[in-house]
Amino acid sequence: MSSILSTDFLNQSDVKIQHTECFINGEWLPSKSGKTFATINPATEVEIAQIAEGDAEDVSHAAEAARNAFDTGLWSKMDARDRGRLLYLLADRMEQEMTYLAALETLDNGKPYQDSLNVDLPLAIDCLRYYAGYADKIHGSTIPIRGKYFCYTRREPVGVAGQIIPWNFPILMVAWKWGPALAAGCTIVMKPAEQTPLTCLRLAQLAKEVGFPDGVINIVPGFGPTAGAAVVKHPLIDKVAFTGEHRTAQIITRESAETLKRLTFELGGKSPNVIFADADLDAAAQGAYIGLFLNQGQCCCAGSRVFVHRSRHDEFLEKLQSLTKQRVVGDPFAAETQQGPQVDQAQFKKIMSYIEKGKQEGANCVMGGERVGEKGYFITPTIFDGVRDEMSIAQDEIFGPVLSLLTFDDKEEIIHRANATFYGLAAAVWTRDVALAHEFASRVRAGTVWVNCYDVFDAAAPFGGFKMSGHGRELGEEGLRAYTENKTVTLAL
Ligand code: NAI
Ligand code: MG
User: Considering 105, 266, 397, 474, which one is annotated as catalytic?
Assistant: First the structure.
C-alpha cells in the first residue's frame, strides 16, 4: 500500500458551495427551526458548510408541496413524453457540469475524484436517461374476463414518494430514486444523508433550471430520527424508498405501520464471493480486490466474504496481496489515488473496532489494519486470512476496506455456507464450469449473482436483496413498477 498523504489537499475553497438550504416548492428555504448542522470533509475533518437542519415541520411543508404538485396533475398528468424530456434535460445538465459535481461529491464523501467523475456520475446520468425513455412506455394490459365486459389495467403513479438515501453513493442514489419515481409521475420528498447533502442539493437546483415544475422535487436535509422519521410518518406521503442499514429499515417498517405506506428497501449485505479450484485466479483476484475495496469498502454489495477453494488458497492470497499492496490511499483529489477516507468518524471507529475484533477472534491480519495519517478517516486496505464463519468479521457488515478470506472444500458445503447469513444482496462465483456456475446462481439466495465478474451494474438490470437485504427491486422495469399502482377498469359492453 502506498500513501500520498504528503501531497497538498486540494484547497477546499476551490469547490464553491452554492446550496445549503431546504429546497421546497421550488424555493431555497432555511429550516423552520433555524437550526443548521455541519457537513465535514472526511479527508481533512474540516467543516465544509453549515446545512439547514430540517425536521418534522420542514418535512410537512415539503409533503404539502409534493402532494399539491401531484394532486393538481401538474406532473402526474403531464404528457408522459414531456416528463421524459425533462429527465433527459436534467441528465444533459449534469453532464455539462460533471467535473464540478464530481468535485462536490468527493469533497463531501471522500471518494476519489477519479471515481466520482468516471464511475458515479456516468452511472447516475445513464440511469436518468434510462428512465427518461421509460416515461412514455408505461403500459397496462387488456384482460379477457368472463362476460360482456371490456377489462383493462392502468399503471398509475403511486403518489408522493418519500426517499431516504445513504452517504456511500450520494449522486447515484439520487438518480436511482428520482429516475423511476419521476418517470412514473410521482412527486418527491427526499432526505439526503446527513454526511453528504451537497450534491443532492445541487441536483435540485439543476432540476429547477431545466424546468421541473415547483413542488415535484423537494429536499429536506437533516438527521434520520427527526427529518427521516417525519418522512416515514407523514400522512400525505404514499411510499417510502429507503437505502441504508437493515436496522433502520426495521424502524421504518414499524413507524410506517400507522399510514401503511408502500415500502421498498435496499439494505446491506455480507456477500459471498466464491472461487472454485478451476477458476482463472488472476481474474478472480482482481474481482475479489475490486469487489471489496471499491468505494473504500462502503458498498452494500461488497464481496466481504471471499471463499477460495483450499487447493488454491496460497496462490490466490499471493495474487490478492500483490494487487492490494499497490493500492494508493490518500488525497481523494490526487489523480493517482484509488482509496480515500471513510465517510465519517463513526464509520471509521466501527471499522477499526472490527479490525480489533478480527484479531482478538484469532483471524490472521496479513495486510493493513491501521489508520493512515492523523487527520482524515483513512484506513489501510486490510486482509484477514484464516477467517472462520462464526467470527464477527465473517458475519457482520463492516462497510470498510476489510476483506475476510475463508477456504472451502466442496460444492455442497460452500453453497450452504454462502447462504448461512440473514443477508442476501449479492454473490459471485468464479469457475470455468458452466453447469457449476448456473447451479450456484440458482441455489444462492441473493438478488444479484455475478459469474466471473463483480460489481457490474446497469440501469436496466434490477438490483435488490433477498432476506434482510431488502424489499423490492431498484433499476430496470421492476424499479419503475415500484413507483406505480395497478388500477383495473371494467366496462360493461
Ligand atoms: P442509516 O441506515 O442509519 O442511514 C441511512 C439513511 O437513513 C440516512 O439518510 C439517515 O439519516 C436515515 N435514517 C437514519 N435513521 C432513520 C430513521 N429512524 N428514520 C428514517 N430515516 C433514518 O445508516 P448509517 O447509520 O449511515 O450507517 C450504519 C451502517 O449501515 C453502515 O455501517 C453500513 O453497515 C450500513 N449502511 C448500508 C448502506 C447500503 O447501501 N445498504 C448505506 C449506508 C449504510
Ligand atoms: Mg444510523
Answer: 266
Which ligand has the shortest distance to the CA of 170? 1
Question: Which residues of 224-283 form beta strands (DSSP E)?
Answer: 239-243, 262-266, 272-275
Concerning whether 266 is annotated as a catalytic residue, the answer is yes
Answering whether pTM is above 0.90, one says yes
Task: At 360, give phi and psi (nearest 5°).
Answer: -60, -35
Report how far residue 470's alpha carbon sits from residue 176's, in angstroms, rounded to the nearest whole number.
Answer: 15
Quote the CA–CA distance of 115 and 125 in Å, as a whole number: 14
Asked if residue 467 has pLDDT above 80, the reply is: yes
State in Å: Cα 245 to ligand 2 middle: 7
Spatial separation of the C-alpha atoms in residues 377 and 298, rounded to whole Å: 13
Residue 458 grid cell: 446497469
Q: Which of 191, 231, 248 to mutate to test the pocket of ligand 1 (most atoms within 8 A of CB)?
A: 248
Checking if the pLDDT of 46 tops 80, the result is yes
H or E element at residue 308: strand 305-309
d(CA 172, CA 482): 18
Give the Cβ contact number of residue 72 at 10 Å.
12
Catalytic residue status for 336? no
**From the CB of residue 436, how many other CB atoms can be counted at a distance below 10 Å?**
15
Residue 144 cell numbers, joined: 379477457
> Which amino acid is it at 418?
A
- In this predicted structure, the answer to whether residue 13 has a pLDDT above a threshold of 80 is no
- Indicate if ligand 1 lies below 6 Å from the C-beta of 358: no
Phi, psi (rounded to 5 degrees) for 162: -90, 130
Q: What pLDDT, in 10s, does the model give residues 354-369?
A: 999 999 999 999 999 9
Rama region for 280: left / alpha / beta (φ>0; ψ in -120 to 50; rest): beta
Q: Which of 39, 51, 164 to mutate to test the pocket of ligand 1 (most atoms within 8 A of CB)?
A: 164
pLDDT of residue 7: 41
Mean pLDDT of 470-489: 98
Note the pLDDT tens digit of each residue in 47-83.
999 999 999 999 999 999 999 999 999 999 899 999 9
Sheet holding 382-385, edge to edge: 364-367, 382-385, 402-408, 305-309, 272-275, 426-430, 448-451
Q: Is the shortest distance between the CB of 220 and ligand 1 below 6 Å?
A: no
Of the residues 186, 200, 300, 301, only one is catalytic, namely 300
What average pLDDT is seen over the chain? 96
pLDDT single digits (tens) 120-171 = 999 999 999 999 999 999 999 999 999 999 999 999 999 999 999 999 999 9
287-316 as b/e: b if 16+ CB within 10 A: bbbebbbbbbbbbbbbbbbbbbbeebbeeb
What distance in angstroms lies between residue 246's CA and the mean position of ligand 2's atoms? 10
DSSP states of 435-455 as a string? HHHHHHHHHS--SEEEES---
